[in-house]
Amino acid sequence: MTQRVIDPSNDPHIWLEEVAGEDALTWVKARNATAEQKLQDEQFAPLKDSLRQILDASDRIPGITKRGDWFYNFWTDAEHPQGIWRRTTLGSYKTDSPEWEILLDLDALSEQEGTTWVWHGASVLRPEQASDEIPGYSRALIDLSPGGSDADVTREFDLNTRAFIEPQDGGFYRPQGKGGLSWIDADTVYAATDQASPTEEIPVTTSGYPRIARRWVRGTDLLDAEPIISVAEDDMVASAGYDSTAGYERHVAVRVLGFYDSETYLIEYTEDDEPHLRLIDVPTDVRVGFHRDLIFFAPRTEASVGGVVLPGGSLYVTDAEKFLNGDQPELTPLFTPTESSSLQGITATRNLFALTVMEDVVEHVEAHWRNDAAWQSQRVLTGITGSLSVGAFDSRESDDIWITANDFLTPTTRHLGSLGPLLESGEETYEQIKQAPERFDADGLAAVQRFALSEDGIRIPYFLIGPAETVQAAADGAPREANAGPEPRPTVLYGYGGFEISQTPNYLSLVGKAWLEAGGVFALANIRGGGEYGPRWHQAALKQNRNKAYEDFAAVARDLVSSGITTKEQLACRGGSNGGLLTGNMLTQYPDLFGAVVIQVPLLDMRRYAKLLAGASWRAEYGDPETDDWEFIQSFSPYHLLDASTEYPPVLLTTSTKDDRVHPGHARKMTAALEGINADVTYWENTQGGHGGAANPEQQAIMNALIHRWLAQQLGL
Predict the structure, then answer these.
(1) DSSP states of 126-138
(2) Strand 180-185 and strand 596-600: pairing?
(3) 31 beta partners
(4) Strand partners, 376
(5) d(Cα 620, Cα 542) in Å, to the nearest integer?
(6) Least crowded by CB within 10 Å, which of 324, 580, 645, 675?
(7) Which listed residue (239, 314, 577, 617) is catalytic?
(8) How far is residue 254 CA from its own chain's centroid?
(9) Active site residue 663
(10) CA atoms of 200 and 226, how far apart (whole Å)
(11) d(Cα 553, Cα 252) in Å, to the nearest integer?
């Protein structure tokens, strides 16, 4: 007989939602002490140190962004755990030991200002935006977060003096909150902020994001800045930006109505400098983009645009000026999905487009370009394998690209290439300029892809990584016969299954060192809710269909056991954020499938999730619990599915006090409820780190070492 632990109308643990409450933090401190005493065994310190060495390794490949003649990078290492912002030249970058010019040291800044600053990015002023007094590439808008929260500040930085320009000296400064600044010109920015003047409405949406985007002129008060676009309180966010590409300058504003719906506008200024919003008239679930003279349309579901029906998941392009003038120019499809393929990425160079396409979770790249008025396409970069990330070198100036590639067992390589030769010779060029060393011993390991059948007969892809004799024995898909084949291994099954985010093969440096090297198996599931097969794969697990994702994950778990990879007692599942909701449902709906469950920075109380921090922005994903949607939402609300009569496997919950995206109360309250029924539960909360769970390499190493020590103890690795 079911004995529900939590009554949705009477939450006994709601006091744990008070993030910095004295009683709540005392509760956290006690559980952290218990977890650390249990998990910081004789193997913990060596493991933590080895993971820290990986995170701090000086021979990691620096990611760079070109601005003018300089290539910028943000870097952390043992000497700079909070990180440094620096730059170099391309010639120097290609060498084994580039010479870097340090622009900003966050460790020194943190010590000086008494705040643990976490890097959130920078935007450099371009020459076409400059003035006589402020040259191009001389200023940057830098976003910094205290402790790693989503809420951050924006500060103007002088690249010549290597110093911030304080507000009293005329510098742009956005107070801490969610939002941002972006350059229009040297003395003007677009500002989205969660502050408002006393005469204005509530400044944030129910999701906690800015309702108003403004045009802010240097030397004036931010709250006096001219509003450009706003959204209703129950929408998601308002934003505005400026594309300064010479000859194609555009001001664009967006009303984000929900996670998957938005309205895009051109901001047209009159002779009197008054803004006028011009709506791009397409359905709200069609994503709109511009590049030079072109406009792009990417519909999530089948949509009519300019009299043409576009399939969901496709990409179409046409002449922007003609379309906006109502001339109905021809729309050209650059990508149309199939049952097995989806569009994963779009990279624009000056004259071409590189599309990253996934076919059964294996990626390749296609180039598309115009030859006179006709469009041509060709598959490119066929000599580079693995998961591919393509980025423009400088989309305004050249057709050069960066290509980053890796897979589960192959460290990252970076290539510099050019698609430009396709216009003349039909062949792209590229050269490898960086390769990261191995971070764990992959000798004897293999990675294979396998498919499981979900309850409704849909094939669910997943990857297996581990000892070759174990994973290759399962590669043919045949069930394992008794007493045949290799012995089952401790296995961790990881998944996410939401927000159209694809899980792709990537080099598993920390998992490799902590788990694979010790003989464990790692499995990655490509369940519905993700983007592996485009929008349709995501939409198959939305709202009332959410449990399809959980059925898929359970099917993979069963397949791991039936194939002989592992046993129920040796199988754990792990996931974070939406993946924490996933593993929370594995715990409560499928407790008999797992020997251990890891739940990180999770959503778990789906009755109150939309009232906590950014939760309201996810109603398009899960539904609105304040409406009749609760009837189906409660079927995947782990906090309310806990049953006092059920025997649950051991569970580890982790979260972050500074997480201002998914409220730490979810993990806290679930832990308290599990303790109330004497379940085997371990809880650990990092006091900083934001939604990622860690604010610097040391915190990342500690968190990952704790998780892997717990897994090893539970599964017998």
Answers:
(1) PGGG--SSS-TTS
(2) unpaired
(3) none
(4) 369
(5) 8
(6) 645
(7) 577
(8) 21
(9) no
(10) 12
(11) 40
**Three-class SS of residue 563?**
coil
Please state the three-class secondary structure of 364-407 as a single string.
Answer: EEEEEEEECCEEEEEEECCCCCCEEEEEECCCCCCCEEEEEEEC
Tokens of 143: 């976003």
**CA dihedral sign of residues 484, 486, 487, 492:** negative
Q: Give the type of residue at 223.
A: L
Residue 690 pLDDT:
67
Catalytic choice (13, 538, 691, 708): 691
Q: Which residues pair with 405 in a beta bridge?
A: 388, 413
What whole-number distance in Å separates Cα of residue 123 and Cα of residue 107?
A: 21
> Which pLDDT belongs to residue 585?
98
Beta strand extents in 506-624 (DSSP E only): 521-525, 571-576, 596-600
Distances (CA, A) of 346 to 234, 302, 367: 31, 20, 10
State yes or no: is 131 an active-site residue.
Answer: no
Question: Helix, strand, or coil here: 546?
Answer: coil
Residue 483: other Cβ atoms inside 10 A: 5
- Would the pLDDT of 691 be above 80? no
What would the two tokens of residue 32 be? 């952290």
For residue 474, pLDDT beyond 80? no
Residue type at position 131: S
Residue 79 CB: number of other CB atoms within 10 A?
A: 10
For residue 262, how many other CB atoms are within 10 A of its CB?
20
Helices (H) and strands (E) in the chain, counts: 15, 39
Q: What is the pTM of this model?
A: 0.94
Question: Tens of pLDDT along 499-554?
Answer: 999 999 999 999 999 999 999 999 999 999 999 999 999 999 999 999 999 999 99
Residues in the chain: 717
Neighbouring C-beta atoms of residue 3, cutoff 10 Å: 10
CA 56-664-662 angle, 5° bins = 80
End-to-end CA distance of the chain: 36
Residue with tokens 């400026």: 242
Helix (H) or strand (E) holding 51: helix 44-56
169 close to 154: Cβ distance less than 8 angstroms:
no
Question: H-helix or E-strand containing 346?
Answer: strand 341-348
Cα–Cα nearest to 250, from 235, 264, 231: 264
SS3 state at 43: coil
Sheet holding 294-299, edge to edge: 286-291, 294-299, 315-319, 332-335
Domains of the chain (ranges; CATH) run: 1-39+588-717 (3.40.50.1820), 337-437 (no CATH), 439-566 (3.40.50.1820)
Cα gap 530→539, rounded to integer Å: 9
Q: What's the order of all strands across the beta sheet hosting 226-230?
A: 180-185, 188-193, 212-217, 226-230
Three-state DSSP at 221 gives coil
Q: SS3 for 708?
A: helix
In this predicted structure, the answer to whether residue 242 has a pLDDT above a threshold of 90 is yes
By the 10 Å C-beta count (0-12 exposed, 13-18 middle, 19+ buried), 479 is classed as exposed
Please give the C-alpha separations between residue 594 and each of 4, 20, 506, 534, 590, in angstroms, as whole numbers.
21, 34, 25, 29, 8
| pLDDT of 303 | 97
